[in-house]
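Long-time lurker, first post. I've been practising inverse folding by hand and with some scripts of my own, and I keep getting stuck on stretches where the structure tokens seem ambiguous. Below is the full token string for one chain I'm working on. Before anyone asks, I'm not after the true native sequence, just a reasonable design that respects the backbone. If someone could post their per-position residues I'd love to compare against what I wrote down in my notebook.
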């Protein structure tokens, strides 16, 4: 039977044996009898300390296992989130590279403007030869007859 703190067991046995001290001093209790009583108190306190140590160790191990399980779960969640983000970034790069025209955009990735999805393809289609007008305005610039308010020369716009 193990005890974590034997000094506390000895202190408890001394406290349990303390009431017989006046009888030992007055001569009412023989020294041999006092020693036997102290040894019985020491054994009883040792057993109580052993049970208490075992109980505390069991609860400590249970709490420690729960904390480790929580850390493992948090780590698995963090890894799952990082994997999902990596897949999302790869998908964004794959959709961005499909419409690339050779121009480098944000972060030096060819054809990426930092915009994902259909909007990126619309904006990327205007990289070659556009004058900064995006979307439908670029189509109107390329086809001047479609909108009479757009100056095909790239100068100021006229309002009809």
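-- Answer (accepted) --
I ran through it position by position. Result:
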């Amino acid at each position: 039977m193990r005890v974590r703190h034997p000094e506390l067991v000895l202190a408890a046995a001394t406290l349990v044996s303390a009431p017989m001290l006046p009888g030992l001093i007055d001569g009412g209790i023989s020294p041999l009898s006092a020693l036997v009583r102290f040894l019985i108190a020491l054994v009883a306190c040792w057993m109580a300390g052993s049970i208490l140590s075992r109980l505390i160790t069991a609860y400590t191990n249970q709490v420690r296992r729960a904390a480790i399980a929580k850390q493992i779960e948090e780590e698995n969640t963090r890894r799952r989130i990082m994997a999902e983000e990596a897949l999302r970034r790869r998908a964004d790069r794959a959709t961005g590279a499909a419409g690339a025209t050779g121009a480098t955009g944000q972060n030096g990735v060819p054809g990426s403007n930092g915009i994902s999805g259909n909007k990126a393809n619309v904006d990327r289609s205007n990289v070659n030869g556009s004058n900064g007008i995006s979307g439908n305005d670029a189509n109107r610039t390329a086809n001047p007859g479609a909108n009479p308010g757009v100056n095909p020369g790239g100068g100021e716009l006229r309002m009809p």
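A couple of notes from the structure itself: Residues 3 and 23 are 31 Å apart (CA to CA). Residues 6-98 form one domain. Happy to go over any region you disagree with.
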